[in-house]
Amino acid sequence: MSETQVNPVHPPRTAPTPATSETPDAAALDAADPLAGLRDRFVLDDDTVYLDGNSLGALPAGVPARLADVVAREWGELRIRSWTESGWWTAPERVGDRIAPLVGAAPGQVVVGDSTGVNIFKALVAAVRMAGEGREEILVDGDTFPTDGYLAASVARMTGRELRRVPAAAIADAAGPRTAVALVNHVDYRTGELYDAAAVTDRLHAAGALVVLDLCHSAGALPVRLDDDGVDLAVGCGYKYLNGGPGAPAFLYIRAGHQPRFDSPLPGWNSHADPFAMTEEHVPAPGVARGRVGTPDILSMLALEAALEVWEGVDIAEVRAKSLALTDFFLARVAETLPAGTVTPVTPREHERRGSQVSLRHPAAREVMAELIRRGVIGDFRAPDLLRFGFTPLYTSFADVDRAVRVLAEVLADLPAGSSYGPGA
Ligand SMILES: Cc1ncc(COP(=O)(O)O)c(C=O)c1O
User: Fold this and answer.
1) What's the short name of a Pfam family annotated to this entry (predicted)?
2) pTM of this prediction?
3) Which of 114, 116, 140, 388 to mutate to test the pocket of ligand 1 (most atoms within 8 A of CB)?
4) 360-383: per-residue pLDDT in tens?
């Protein structure tokens, strides 16, 4: 269905608002978009505006056939031979090397497997062990994703360290001679605020502390420069901007220079230097493989590997340029379409502080998002009052953005009259 056609399931209740002369026209922006053709690499339908790729990326078109082959041939016919003949055993490092350029890492430093949370645990404990005695404190971003906070508290308890929660913007300056490690987000999952990874890392290093960077909301959305920025350890999700599918395995970056000292709290036979020796003592594998634990989740991992093919020939700098253009366009359309004060953008306006999402505060955000979804605009709600919209430059169009704002305006206009949730409330 084209942008101008009426959705028969969810007809708009008011006439579409044309873009004013203040902002460029969505069609013109799409026509000039060098990445527009990449949308065909995904399974999407024109009835839905999908702005939730920061939660679950859309399905890359090549994944179903690849997974069918993995199941029918590699598992069904080759069975256990696939561990060697189909490259299953080395998939965690191979898929890691495929992610590496997206996060600014040279080969041999990224391993794929387990959930993000499990990798945060490995990285934090390993960092505390690397930092050594006298470094008695762990810092964590006070507004972090719950898992990160829970794990930091648990690791502090397990390792006999103290946990200090500090606002993200102040965390680097809070580090001192007692700090072992800080667990920090590259992009805040609620507000979409982007932090300067290089500056944070430099300040932590100046205090003698290590950094574990959570890349869940930046990997695949904007340039990440782990090697150049001197980041010690990092983790990220496979199912958001990397489009690996629900529950896709996460990744762990272990800086090459730290690998010999990376002492995993979860050693398994997969991270052993000689897994089939089956020795009593664990001898860590050389290199990033020591970040592995157990038998890799092959179906999910190979779905992620196939999903990463959408990056073929894609320049992450162009992805960033489009992401900023999409979010600029969204903010401009919100400002000119919604009555002043109806929603409050909480995502920074400065490009250098903005990730690839925009969050709008509204007191009835939960109800508003439910209605948006009912009308075919998929974002998400984050308690207590945020409407969260993710922009995936590989497949989000300017027409999507335009339509999302028009539907948002309609939903807000349709809120019950006199409701405390109305405009300006
Ligand atoms: C910033 C951040 N960190 C950690 C996680 C936890 O990821 P997982 O559920 O894969 O462990 C998420 C999940 O969305 C996240 O957004």
Assistant:
1) KYNU_C
2) 0.93
3) 116
4) 999 999 999 999 999 999 999 999
Q: For the chain, what percent of residues have pLDDT higher than 70?
A: 93
Judge whether 36 and 397 are in contact, CB under 8 Å.
yes
**Two tokens at 19?**
């873009």
Measure 100 CA to ligand 1 centroid, in angstroms: 19
206-233 pLDDT tens trace = 999 999 999 999 999 999 999 999 999 9
The best mutation among 141, 183, 237, 359 to test binding of ligand 1, ranked by most ligand atoms within 8 Å of the C-beta, falls on 237
Band (14; pLDDT cuts 50, 70, 90):
very low
Rg of the chain in Å (alpha carbons) = 23
Average pLDDT over residues 13-32: 70
The single residue listed with the structure tokens 């782990």 is 226
Residue 122 appears among annotated catalytic residues:
no
Ranges of beta strands (E only) in 24-87 are 42-43, 49-50, 59-60
Is 147 labelled a binding residue?
yes
From 379, 390, 386, 378, select the one nearest 323 (Cα to Cα). Answer: 390
The string of DSSP codes covering 165-206 is EE-GGGHHHH--TTEEEEEEESB-TTT-BBP-HHHHHHHHHH
CA–CA separation, 179 and 176 (whole Å): 5
Question: Torsion-angle region of residue 385: left (phi > 0), alpha (psi -120 to 50) or beta?
Answer: alpha
Q: Is 148 in the pocket of ligand 1 (CB under 6 A)?
A: yes
**Of the candidates 107, 63, 33, the residue with the CA atom closest to the CA atom of residue 238:** 63
Encoded tokens for 217: 């909301």
Domains and CATH numbers, the chain: 26-61+315-413 (3.90.1150.10), 89-311 (3.40.640.10)
Q: Between these two residues, 377 and 423, which has the higher pLDDT value?
A: 377
214 noted as active-site residue = yes
pLDDT at position 80 is: 98
List beta partners, residue 310: none
In this predicted structure, the answer to whether residue 416 has a pLDDT above a threshold of 90 is no
Question: Is residue 214 in contact with ligand 1, taking CB distance under 6 Å?
Answer: yes
- Give yes or no: 240 in active site: yes
